[in-house]
Structure formats: structure tokens, C-alpha cells
């Protein structure tokens, strides 16, 4: 997480201020629950809420105490006692530090997910708009980087839409996975605290109860969470790679928006580099990398060890902040992408009609040619075209072995671009539920 | 995937025989659908089914053809034509190789998932049985490898049960993700094939339709799948690590089953090494590693490149076969785990009662001691115990500053082990839905 | 490791036959050393060599014994006793299984490295030959996929040569790292065996002595080894990616060799897909992935646990066999690469001279224009070219603000392609030590 | 990189101030070289040095310019012109941004390596001191977490010393790999700049010349660098894991230093948790993870794309700062580790003499028992000991089948602990070059 690739709203989730505020809420809710159960005085709980809600927690003061006691939660509670007064001794009764820390981490991840879901929604909206805009913009489909058959630019974007819609569903599921609360004590047995406190706090914090914890919330939940972010990052990389390809000098079917004052290169003023999508490719690598330590965090020793903590202090912010930034950047790129339909058409026409070869092949077999014969006939007319010696349509019409099966008109019909787009509506309906925006 | 860590049923899913059988089914179903649409003769479709269903595909023959034509699907279709006769020319009409290959891969992953789900069910059954068996077997809970508070061995297993139940749900979801079928042609536009063929084949193969494909089924689905297997592997590692710890010479609370004829070490006959769970730790590393290339596979170029293929030829079998083996091995370890409750009790008693310190701390604060005072009082009596100079209970009773707050009986009550287990039923109900097996 | 991506010589290193032969050699050398030290009878050592050298170890028999005793080295020693007779009891005296297993693994890695080094030498030879062939073949250099300045195709290959020469040096170093032998007993103290036995066996097996082992050879050596293979794989990916780009329909500056009988696609006969380099991209992902578990293997518990073993049974063969295959495939691709200098020239001319813009910029500043002015002058003439409205040279000559600084001849001189190649010899000398092949 | 896990000296290497200072030095040296070659006026070069050396670069000002021109190097050069005046137009002549950026990154990595090498030296010194201190402190060696044979605590540390000495050599090599300079222009052809400028700057900056660059310095160098850091991190994890094991309640052979004011747990005052080494385990996971994106950075497109940049902005600081912190923390842990030789002895005696079983086994075979018989005899006496029914020595002496081969004195001799340490000096000499500190 570095400022260059960060957005303030997500960064704020990981600030000490936010963290201490969540700590306070958890502690205060727990105190209320304990008061409801008659374990601590009702007045004390009220006092905690009253004083704590009004207070601004002093991060530097807490840090100073932590340097002395070398324990972050004790430091916070000490500071809280400075604010609340003697009633503070009823706070944290029967709880263990991890009850606060783990539940807080999950609250942060849930909030981060809310932002990320909004990011994906924005991206989906941009993709949808551009997909409908270019629903029937002809472009060549490429497999292996080689021209294959015509598709439309809208279909490319529809694919991306469907992919990010899957990402959204995965993230909702991953968010649900980490939306748990544990207030279960030193080894998760509720020895010193009633399970009803956990239930109360969970509900108040918008979480569900962790069915069985062991001081810590089990880290398979978080492994799944960060793995999900890694998959989403991989989908970002896919779309970014597509755009980088389209912006290549020789292809130039689309370009990232290039602002007026922007200088592309200190030396080559004509250059417009797809630096945003290249950047996204790099950011995707990072978010993907963070999944590995999250998975290694699962196998904690016995009821817990604290090896996960340093990892999470890093990947918690790094992963969510970077993904938030990347999604927003991708949305902006899609939104403002400069599309060149004329270049798409030019590239489509580039190979002298060879993109229609499969259709010719099919027509031949439908008229009775064996697959092998049809293949041979298509191949022998395709090769000269490939070498720049003639166009495919003319050559086919002049090949007597071909015209045995197909009339000139039938051959020409194979070169009708519209033929390829007859099912675009079907696909758009599948993806967007409608054929119109 | 090596024989030593493989089970035949999973291996069979990845055999050439199985693969070609699935290819045949997809091709034959597609031919039937084409016949229903009037594109190819009904008789031809029947003939394909009749001859193909009866035939055994000759793997060596197909391989020989592939060496010549350097294309696996063409090789198969050529062999199929040898079996079916001239009607074979109606097979694969308007389809592209990836239609067959990608759908087949998904069928294999779906079947592999069925086996893995059965594996998890077996593991869950073993965990549940042992959890109830040891529901109230006292054992020390450890955080940081250090004695914390009492828990029960059943609770440890209940935690594992809850974790693998989550794994099961994740796998069901991951299976659903890859259970799609694409018969959409060279760039996914259905230019040469009716989308209804895809719908027909999907239904017959137990899959859903891929909403928008681009010659290939998008690889974010598979990235999510293999990431999910990686998370499951991490949970295996967690339980394996727990058992390895329990079998340590100094702990010896449980041991892997040791068969009569087995030799532990060529040189140290008394040694019983937790080799199965150590092995599982290694296997988990492998399954985890396979997730990375699966994620790198997502960003294929344009409508497809074939870089994913070599990866999937390896991780398809390697990941599922290894995880299948690991789950089965873990189930066997859990099922036959030799548990030593007497050693658990011995370890629990090892620290002269210090495990009850938190309870004493709490009792002191509840009687009005400040947190700081309580902490100090507990600490000054705990330290001699730690140094082996006395037992905690006696020291506390003799500390006048303690007895100002707590009577001897009240101090003794803090040492009641049962106190820690009062909510075991609550947790078991949460996890298993019942307090009894 | 699957047959499709394997070559027999590397596979043979990992066969049971090879493994048992190495086991035998280690055991027999150790017996000789023990005999030299007077610990076991000289005759026994001779008998072991005589019988063992003549014998073919029966893999199935050893496996059958292992299934019974569940210990691979004991199984082998039992079989060896069947071959050697009673003198076999002097074999393995004071040794532990890992002495044999770990040293064997290292012997296999050393041999695998020898093959890999030969692979790299072959690749270097092919790169060098093609680099000199195309030392001055003009081609456009691209940054961000956008045309930048002219380079030569030979320079591209020289870069690859330099990169793989670094890979070679790294592999030599990695091989040296794993070329160690440990015969040090159960915890590495030589309690039951003289260190001179280790020294003797090490020398005979072409290894150096592991200075301090702990039953096992420390796994940081292997982590470094597999990490090095991963880096080499990444360099393979780089060159493969370059070729994939060059073969794109719109670029088509080079193509993988396409054999006469080969069919590119079942449906699009004109297609020549860069499937070999795409395949290499995938294989690189796999070799890279194997580095992670190798690193996780380092932190074995205490003097050893066996979690590394399953990992190494997989990545030992998988990583070396895959890399061997990939290097050989890449060599073949480079060796037979079809290069299209005319297309390179065509692409170079594609942007109407804009690639010379930096030179114009420089010439302007050298004649006294401020950087900002020069930039503005270049930019305003470049933009029309970019939009297809004229060529750069003509526009510059017609721009009075430009001709204030540069004469028409001076402007033209900026468009001299040869200018860019004046230091090619310098670079070739740096890389190949010579300017001629 | 977060403050909690950072040390100021390493953080400073990655500050904007340091970065701009290195940029300045590279630009100024290049200007001097250009002046020496007569390309720019000597006075201009002197002015640049004079003004630039005296100036403090204004990070906020540069950032403000960058926000406008969206190019970091142009922003810096603009600011430099503000400081230097009109002579600044001679700066950066014929160079491209990457010449500055890539060379700077390498300078930072070289400096970071110097710090890391110093860290390793400190660690080695601590390990050596403690190794000699405990050269003959008896402790049980464990394989699989199970007692094996006696070793010494000094040998454990000697192993760690040898491992980190290897790490040092690897880091020196990795540092050498990235210590290169490129001043070669837009695609690395030196079209607009003389290679002698590169040579001059390289020498002045303490780097070697990159033999062939392509606008960028090839990223296989950096992949190797970060992979090396990842291996070092894995070795940190190994030693950290050893210490965590030793501090377990049941083992307690060593403890992390526990400062007077430190509170271990808010609730369990007797707990001394190995939080530092647990933390190191987590940090190792992070440094390991950073190697993956570094490897993915290798395959840049053509002569360069900028996808590596975001990755390196993160892992450059994150990886070196984290490793620096981890090495220093580990050194402190080793330096102040509280060792309990009495507990080591207690654990050694724990298994009633079973640790001597291999020696008995060997003695029996040396007296003529077959391996199988010896194994059986040892096993039948070991099993009762294992069950707590007697001690091994007594049982062996009372076993007539044993005493057929060995006299009571000979059996007793097998239980001599000193026997295991006779080669400690050999190993220390191998590792430290001496038997005394």
C-alpha cells in the first residue's frame, strides 16, 4: 500500500483511528451485554458508551503506552480508563485480546468488501454501457494472437462484464465468510464469558457468530478471502492485457484516454503508451501474491499462534487498497476508452477474406465434401492469400473443385459479415438479461 | 501426481480412456442436437451413438494419428470415423476443438469434485465420531505453544469439523463454478452452430451453459476452483500440524496408528514418527502451489491462447489426485488416531495450576481489585510456580493481599476444571446441531 | 511431469532403476570406506561391489518388501541382502536412511543440472547463430507495445543470449549448492560413523561434504536450486512472449516453424498459431510454481521432519523434466524460427517516420531550442502523422519554426536508419566477445 | 513495509529524498561524461554539479509538477532546471527516463544489500558466540518431533550459522547481479548517446555496465534478487520455528528474552509467548511472497513495458525493509536467548534411555547378530520402556538373548553420552574453521 496506488476511503478503513473506534465499539457492546446479564453494573456500561463515544482516542498516547507494556490491547484499555474513569475496570471482563483484534479485523474486511463491491458495480456499469455502445461494432476475434473469425467489440466487453459479475458474486461470498465475530476467551471455551455476549456483539457489529473459535477466528476464512481477491485481480489482468494488445501500434483498435497536458515520453512525443493497463497488470501480480501468505496462515499451532498477525497487518491494507485502486483505475480506463471502429474494420479486412475460411469449410462439407477434402480445398486456396497472392473469394470462385460443391453466390454468402452476428442478441440476453441497454 | 500419492478412482478420471469417452459423448450429443435441428441427418446421429457406444477407443491409434496431424481432436475424429464410417462427417459440424476440450475438462473437474466431496464427507464423519468420543476429554489449550486454559480434545476436533464443513461448502461452490459447457465455435459467436446445441449438450452432460465464451471457457472459473482446492489443502495442513504437535515426544497426547509390521526407523526401533501427517503437510504445499499458475492462466490473449493448456494438463490431475489422496489419508489418520487422555491430563497438571491464573485474575477484579492490582497479585504468585517453587493454589492461599479479596474456598473454586466446560454443549450444538452423537 | 512434456534422458534420472543404482553406489562406497577404516571386513565390501555391480535391482521386489515393512531403504537393503548374501549385514553400518536418500537426491539434481546446462548451451548456440544472422536486420523497437526507435532483430536475440548466459551461471551456482553429501547419522553427529566415510563417499560421488547436517541436508540449498529453475523458466517465458508477439497477425515479423503435415486448426486452415511458445508460457508458470513449496520445505522441525519428501518426489522430476523439455523446445523454436525481414521493414515504415521523432527532438535542442520548445515543435508535426495526415519528414521541412533550427538536409539526416546501428558492434562485442560469428 | 516492522536506515534508502539525490547523481555524472566527449559544454556540467550538490530537492514541488505533466523524470528535470538555470538543458541529453529509473533502482538495491549483509554479519556473530557457548551443552536431537539421538545445542546453532553463511554468499551474488547501470537510450541501441557515458556513470555509481539493455535493465536480474531474499527469509523461518518449538511449555529448553516491564498476556500473567519468532515466521511468509511477482516481471513485452514498475515500487521497499527488520530481530532473539541446559538434560533423560537404542542395535550387529535379530531384540526391550514399564538399560541387561552378544559393561557403554560428541570438534572446524571461539 503506497500513496500512489491508494484511495483515501479504503485507506481510512485501515487507519489507527478507525481501528480504535471499532475496538471501542466491540468493548462497549460487550460491556452492555455483560450488564444485561448482570455481570457488570448497568451504569458502568452506560458510562463507557457516554465517555467513549464522545472521546477522540489519542493514537500517540496509546502508542506510548504500548511501547511500555508491549501489548496493544492493554495499551488501549489503559487509555480508555483515562477517558472513562474507574468504571473502565468492567470493560473487557472475561475477554481475551484476540476477541477484540480478530473481530475488528473482520469488521475491517467487511467494510473493505463493501467498497470493493461498489467498485465492481461501477466497473460493471461502465462495461455494460460500452458493451451496448459497441454491441455490433465489427472486430476480428483472435485466437493465439492470430485472426480467427469476426466478433464484435461489444461481445468482448460482454465477456468482461460476465467475468466481473462472477467476481462480484465471489466477493459477496468471501465477505460473508469473514463476517464473523468471536468473543470466546483464551481458548474459545467461553470459560469466563457467556456466549450470549458474543451473540450480542455479533449482531450489533453486523456479523454472525463464529461457531467454534480457539482464541482466534480460524484463518481458512481469511485464506479464502484473499484468494478471492487474487482471482479478481487476475480478471483485472485479463481485461488490462486485452486493452494493452488493442493499443499496440500495429493493432490500434483502442487507446487509453490521453489527457491534454499529459506527456507520454520525454523523447517520443507521438507515443501514447497504455501505461494504465500496464500498471494494472503489475498491481494484479501483487494482489495475487498476497494470497500465498494468507494460505500459509491457516495452519496456526494448536489453539493459535501469532504468526498470522504480521502477515495480516500487511496484506489486510495492501491487498484491499491495491485492489480498490485497481478496480477504480480499470473502470476509468473502460469508461474513457477511445475506440477506433475504423481500425477494427481495417484489421478485419487485413487477411484478404481468410477469416471466412471456416465458413467455406463448413459449406463444403454440408454440400457433401468429406472433411478431409474440404479441408484440403480450403487450405490450397488460403495459402496463396496468406502469401499475399490474391484474395480468398476470387481464388475460391476460380477453383473448379470448389465450384463443384458451391455456386459463386453460395461462396459469396460465406463472406457475409452479418452472418457472424446473428446470435449476438442471444449472448447479450444471457449476460445482461436484455438486448437493449 | 505420482502413484505413491494417488488413488485409482481419481486417477481414472484423468485417463485417456475417460477423456475420449467424454469427447465422444459431447460430440454425439451435439450431433443429436444438430439432427433435432435438421442440420444433419437423424440416421447419422443414431449411427454415431450406436457405433461409438459399442466401441473401445484405441488410445495408441489416436496417439499415432496425432503424431502425424499434430492435433488431438482431429486425431480423435479421424479414429471415430474409422469406427462409425461415412456418417462421421456429420460429427463436429460447426464446432471448434475447444468446444470439446474445455467442456471435457469441466466434466472431469465436476467428477473429481464429486469424489473430493465424498472424501470430505468421510473426513467429517470421522471427525464427528471422534469429537463426540472426546467431547469432554480434558486437555490443555495452547496459544503460542504455551499452556493457556483447559479445553477438551473434542472441541479441537469440533473446530476441525466446522473448518472442513466450510471447505465442503466452498468446494460445492467451486464445482458449480466450473460446471459449464461451451459449444460456441471459433470465437464464441455461434456463427456456425446454433446456441441450442450448446444448451442440449450442457443439459445432457449435467452442466450449465457458459453465458459468453470466446472459443474458451473463461479461466477465472478454474482459477477459483484451484484456489479453493489450495484453501482446502491449507486446512489439511492445519489439522496435520496439530497431530504432529500432539505426537511430539514431550507432548504425546495422540499418535498416528502404527501397524504391527511397520518399521519406524531403520535405526531407532522405539520411534513412532508422525510420518503420515508430515506427508500431508508436504502434499498441502503442492496443492497450494498449483493455485498460482491457475491464476496466471486467467489473462489469456484476446479470445484465447493455449498457454493454459499445459498448465491444466498438469494441475488438473496433480491437484485433484493429490488432494483426494490427502483427504483420504487424513480421514484414516483421524479415524485410527490413538488418543492418550491420561497424557493430556498429565500435561494439563504440568504447570502447577498456572492455567487457572486468568480465572483468579477475574475473580480478583470482580471482588473489587483494580485490573493492575489483580494482575500484579497473580503475577507475583505465578512466577515462583513457573520456577518450580511451589504450587499456585497454595501460594495464593498464603498471600494476604489475595485473601483480602478471596476466601480460600473461593480461590479453590477457581481451580475447578469443570468450570471451563460448561459451554461445550453450546459449541457442539452450534457445530453439529446436537449435543449427542 | 507428463510424457507429453518429457524427454527420456531426464526422465531416466528419476527412474527407480537409477535411484536404486545410486543407493547401491552410496552404500557400497560407504562399505569400502568402513573397510578401509577397519570397521567391517574388506572381503565383505568387495563382495558387495562384485555382486551389486553385476545385479539388476528388482524394482517390483523392492516395492513388495516396502509394502510389508513400510520403509523404502530397509526394503532395498533386504533386497540387496538377497543378492549379496550374509556379507550384506556390513552394509549401512552406522548410517541412517537419510544419509542415502538425501545424498541420492543431490546426485540426481546434479545430473539433472548437467542435462539442463547442456540444454542451455544448445539454446545459446542457436541464439548466437540467429543473432549474428540478423545482426543488422532492421526492426522496430517497441516500448509499451508502441513503436519507439529502430533496433535490429539480432540485438533482440543478443539480449536473449545474454539473459540465458546469466541463467547458465546461476544454474552452475545452484548445482554447486546442491552438490553435497551427508553420511552423518541420525542427527548429524557422526555418533556411529566416522566422518571420513562421508568424505570418501562424497569424493567418489563427485560431491562435496555437507559441513553440518542434521540427519538431513539443509533444505535452503534446494530452495535456492528450485528458485533458480523458476527464474530460468521466467526467462523462457520472456523469449516465448516475444515470439508470440512477433507472430501476431498484425505484426507477423516471425513465425514458429510449421511442418508440412501439421494442421493448425480443425476449422481455420490458414492459421499458423504460435502454439509452441504459448505452451512454453504455460510450462514456465509450472516451473515457477514449484519454487514455492521448495521454499516452504526449508523450515523443517528440529533436526528433520519428512514433510519435504512428498514435495521433492514431485518437484524433483516435475521441475527438471519440464524445464529440460521447455529449454529444448525453445531451442528448436529459435533454431527454426521463420523470420520475415520484409515485414519488419514494413512495420518500421508504418508510422510515417514518427520513430525518428526523438532524434529530431535532440537535433532541435542541440541547435539551441529549449527542451520545451523542441518538444512542442516535434509534437505538433507528429500529431497529424499520427492521424494519417501526411508524413513526418515533409511536415517538418515545411514548418518554419523547425527550419529556423535545422536545414532540410539536417532534418533528413535525422531519418537515417543506419544512425541507430552504429553501436551494434559495441553491444555484440560485450555479449559475444566478438563482432563476427 | 509498515513502521512497526521497519528500521530507519533501510527506510531512508527508499525515501523520495534519496531517490532524487541518486537521480541527480546519475544525471550529473552523465552530463560530465557528455562534456568530456565534447557533446555539451564543460561549464554546463560544472554548473549542474555545483548547483545540484548544494540544493535540497523539493519533493512536494516535484510532485506538483508531476501531477501536471504526468511524468516523474520530466517533473524532476523541470525542478532541476529551476535550481540550475538554463544550463539544465544539457542534462539528460540523449537519455531516456528508464536510464535514470532503472539505474537508480539498482543503486537502491545495492545499498539495501549492503545493509542486509551487515545484518547477516551481526546474526552470524551472535550465532557463533552462542554456538561456542553451548558447544557441548547436551540436548536431544529430534527427527519428526520425536527423540532421536543426543546432539548439542551448539551444533544446532552451528547449523544455523552455516545456513546463514550460505545466505550471505547468495546475497553477495544477488547484489552483484543487480549492480548494473544502463544509459542506453529508448531501445538500448545508444542511438543518441555514446556507450562511454554509460561506462562513466557505471564506474562513478559503483556499478558494472549492463551488456545489453532494451530501454530497461532485464528483469531476470531482479527476479533472482528477490528470489534470493525469499530463500533467506525461509532460513529465518527455520531458525524461528526451532526457537518456537524449544519454548513450548512441554519442552522449555529456551525462551525469548522477556523484558521486565513487558506483559505477556492480558489474562495469563505466567505466559511467556515466543511472539518474536512467531512474528518472524509471518514476516518470512511475506518476503517469500514478494518473489512471485518479481518473477512474473521478467517477461516484459518487446523492449519494455511498465508493468514491473508498480510491483517494484512495492516490493523494492517491502522486501528489503521487512527482511532487514527480520534479520535484526532474529539477531536480537539469538543474542539474548535464555537457554535452559537443565531442561535440555531433563528432556534427554525423559525416555528412559531409549535414545541409545540405535547404538545398542549397532553393537548387536557388530557382535554378529543379523540386522533383523538385532532389530527385534532392541524393539522388544524398547516397547516396555515406551509404556513406562522399566528403563532400557536394566531391561537389556536382563534379556538373555541380548547378553548372548553383549556383556553388561558393553551394554552400559552404549549409554555413554560423550560417545555422541566425539566429532563435535570436526563439525565446528568445518563450520567455523576452529574448535575454539
From TrEMBL, chains A, B, C, D:
The reactions it catalyses are: N(6)-(1,2-dicarboxyethyl)-AMP = fumarate + AMP; (2S)-2-[5-amino-1-(5-phospho-beta-D-ribosyl)imidazole-4-carboxamido]succinate = 5-amino-1-(5-phospho-beta-D-ribosyl)imidazole-4-carboxamide + fumarate
So what EC number does this one have?
A: 4.3.2.2
The GO terms this record gives for MF are: lyase activity
Q: Sorted alphabetically, which keywords does the UniProt record give?
A: Lyase, Purine biosynthesis
Looking at the record's lineage, which domain of life comes first? Bacteria
- Sorted alphabetically, which SMART domains does this protein's record hold? ADSL_C
A family per Pfam: Lyase_1
- Report the pathway entry: Purine metabolism; AMP biosynthesis via de novo pathway; AMP from IMP: step 2/2; Purine metabolism; IMP biosynthesis via de novo pathway; 5-amino-1-(5-phospho-D-ribosyl)imidazole-4-carboxamide from 5-amino-1-(5-phospho-D-ribosyl)imidazole-4-carboxylate: step 2/2
Q: Which PANTHER family match?
A: ADENYLOSUCCINATE LYASE (PTHR43172:SF1)
What family classification does the UniProt entry report for this protein?
Answer: Belongs to the lyase 1 family. Adenylosuccinate lyase subfamily.
- The name this protein carries in UniProt is Adenylosuccinate lyase
Gene from which the chain derives? purB
Amino acid at each position: 500500500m503506497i500513496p500512489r496506488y491508494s484511495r483515501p476511503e479504503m485507506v481510512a478503513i485501515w487507519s489507527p483511528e478507525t481501528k480504535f473506534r471499532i475496538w471501542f465499539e466491540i468493548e462497549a457492546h460487550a460491556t452492555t451485554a455483560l450488564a444485561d446479564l448482570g455481570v457488570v453494573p448497568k451504569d458502568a456500561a452506560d458510562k463507557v458508551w457516554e465517555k467513549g463515544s464522545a472521546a477522540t482516542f489519542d493514537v500517540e498516547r496509546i502508542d506510548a503506552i504500548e511501547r511500555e507494556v508491549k501489548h496493544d490491547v492493554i495499551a488501549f484499555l489503559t487509555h480508555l480508563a483515562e477517558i472513562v474513569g474507574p468504571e473502565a475496570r468492567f470493560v473487557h471482563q472475561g475477554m481475551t485480546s484476540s476477541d477484540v483484534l480478530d473481530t475488528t479485523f473482520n469488521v475491517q474486511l467487511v467494510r473493505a468488501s463493501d467498497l470493493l463491491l461498489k467498485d465492481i458495480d461501477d466497473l460493471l456499469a461502465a462495461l455494460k454501457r460500452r458493451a451496448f455502445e459497441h454491441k455490433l461494432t465489427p472486430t476480428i476475434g483472435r485466437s493465439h494472437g492470430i485472426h480467427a473469425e469476426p466478433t464484435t467489440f461489444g461481445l468482448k466487453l460482454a465477456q468482461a462484464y460476465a467475468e466481473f459479475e462472477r467476481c462480484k458474486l465471489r466477493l459477496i461470498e468471501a465477505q460473508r465468510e469473514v463476517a464473523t465475530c468471536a468473543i470466546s476467551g483464551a481458548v474459545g471455551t467461553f470459560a469466563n464469558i457467556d456466549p450470549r455476549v458474543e451473540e450480542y456483539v455479533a449482531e450489533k457489529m453486523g456479523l454472525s457468530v463464529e461457531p467454534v473459535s480457539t482464541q482466534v477466528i480460524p484463518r481458512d476464512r481469511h485464506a479464502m478471502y484473499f484468494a478471492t481477491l487474487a482471482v479478481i485481480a487476475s480478471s483485472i489482468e485479463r481485461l488490462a492485457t486485452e486493452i494493452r494488445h488493442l493499443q499496440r501500434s500495429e493493432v490500434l483498435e483502442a487507446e487509453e484516454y490521453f489527457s491534454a497536458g499529459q506527456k507520454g515520453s520525454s523523447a517520443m512525443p507521438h507515443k501514447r503508451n497504455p501505461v494504465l493497463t500496464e500498471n494494472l497488470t503489475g498491481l494484479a501480480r501483487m494482489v495475487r501474491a498476497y494470497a500465498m501468505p494468507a494460505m500459509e496462515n491457516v495452519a496456526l499451532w494448536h489453539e493459535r499462534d501469532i504468526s498470522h498477525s504480521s502477515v495480516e497487518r500487511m496484506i489486510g491494507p495492501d491487498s484491499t487498497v491495491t485492489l480498490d485502486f485497481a478496480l477504480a483505475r480499470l473502470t476509468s480506463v473502460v469508461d474513457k476508452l477511445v475506440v477506433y471502429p475504423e481500425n477494427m474494420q481495417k484489421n478485419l479486412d487485413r487477411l484478404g477474406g481468410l477469416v471466412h475460411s471456416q465458413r467455406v469449410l463448413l459449406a463444403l462439407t454440408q454440400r457433401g465434401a468429406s472433411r478431409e477434402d474440404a479441408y484440403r480445398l480450403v487450405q490450397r486456396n488460403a495459402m496463396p492469400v496468406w502469401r499475399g497472392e490474391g484474395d480468398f473469394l476470387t481464388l475460391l470462385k476460380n477453383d473448379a473443385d470448389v465450384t463443384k460443391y458451391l455456386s459463386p453466390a453460395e461462396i459469396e454468402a460465406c463472406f457475409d459479415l452479418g452472418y457472424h452476428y446473428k446470435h449476438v442478441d442471444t449472448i447479450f440476453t444471457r449476460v445482461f438479461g436484455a438486448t437493449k441497454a
